[in-house]
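User: Predict the full complex structure for these chains.
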Amino acid sequence: MQHYSGFGLVKHALTYHENWQRAWRNPTPKKKYDVIVVGGGGHGLATAYYLAKEHGITNVAVVEKGWLGGGNTARNTTIVRSNYLWDEAAWLYEHAMKLWEGLSQDLNYNVMYSQRGVMNLGHTLQDMRDIHRRVNANRLNGIDGEVLDIKQIQEIVPIMDCSKHTRYPIMGASWQPRGGVARHDAVAWGFARGADALGVDMLQQTEVTGIRKSGNKVLGVETTRGFIAADTVGVVTAGNSGVLAKMAGFQLPIESHPLQALVSEPMKPILDTVVMSNKVHGYVSQSDKGDLVIGAGIDGYNGYGQRGSYSTIEHTLQAIVELFPMFSRVRMNRQWGGIVDTCPDACPIISATPVGGLFFNCGWGTGGFKATPGSGNVFAATLAAGKPHPLAAPFSIDRFISGKLIDEHGAAGVAH
Amino acid sequence: MLHIYCPHCAEYREEEEFRPKGEAHIARPVAPEAASDEEWGTYLFFRKNPRGLHHELWYHAAGCRKFFNATRDTVSYQILETYKVGQKPSVVAGQSSNKGAAK
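Assistant: Here is the predicted structure of the two-chain assembly.
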């Protein structure tokens, strides 16, 4: 793998940047792999990378129906935080957060992780009680968090309307300084390049059309480029997880919904942190390019169409304008939708399945991006050992039978 | 914006008057106290979530405030029919599974 550095940049400038090595190969599928990862998004690529790097399993294929990082990895609003309420979730997301903090060095790829802080606003007394509870829970788990009053909020975000004259006046906020944003495409590309260098085959434009089983054991996957065998198959297909589960012959406690986001025209720097509000329901940050990156909740109906209803966008922008009246004149540039796989308890499923050798990593719903490295890390360990990583164990699919849910709905400031 | 025909109002109304309420025809276990954990968990949480035809419950929240069912394509979002609760869908997915009369 060609090492990226400042020196390399200068060197390649002499040849007009025409001789850069390709970041990954485009191999033809082998007949058999040790592990197949279905889904070439951030989580799938991270899984392949950590399988090769930490577990020495390099005979791995990532099977992707489109192009790498073209699904929700390319469609999210790039927010990273770990301030979840319940221990199990907090540990998992904090595991990811620690990996984020060294990711650019680890991958030798600038994922532009910018720890600009994440602010979750409270607008009611109950919001504030929840915020106090969550920040205390976070601190007990060693996760940074503070409760801010209006004066402190106003110092950090002077342009926000913190007056008493709004419909839902801001009463306070939780603040996680280590949170922030990252460059979403770079995360996929960095993991893909890293995994490729370790010998992983990235099979793009290869759609899985079936899962071949013998009795109750997985044999491999049928694809549009023929059958590929593997004893272990990890499915990381976000919104399409239900479709894959149906191929394997079982159901998931998941429903797929459209989640929309939008960006404005680029502007000069105006907002240097991430502001989220569950009550008026919207979140916004400003990308390094200068556009406001805006999102809110899912469309309520089930959908696989990668688009949603206009009224949802309207509600989102109403919330943003309520918080930032000065943004009312900003023009929106692009709008899109992704398919998110929402779980009843707003926590993911990282689990063995009724089919031997077949594992699922799904259900990340509206907030999977922040977990990308952690999700891949624990899922790789799960695939390598054939049993759940300790951090993944509570996220077994069995919890929907036993009732031991990890109910992060609302609790963690999960927008939904 | 979806245009949805409310079978109670017998009119097309705009999507914002309605709330989607998820999969339709989910039968509650007949004897809840006798249901196993698996039956109960399946009833509460596990869903068909099909890519294609979906029979689902809608609520006319800002209208007649009554529930009804719809058959909708989850890829194109086209609503193929709406029908009252208790009725069976007339449009069902071609082959095997999705019969609408749920488990």
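Chain B has one helix and six strands.
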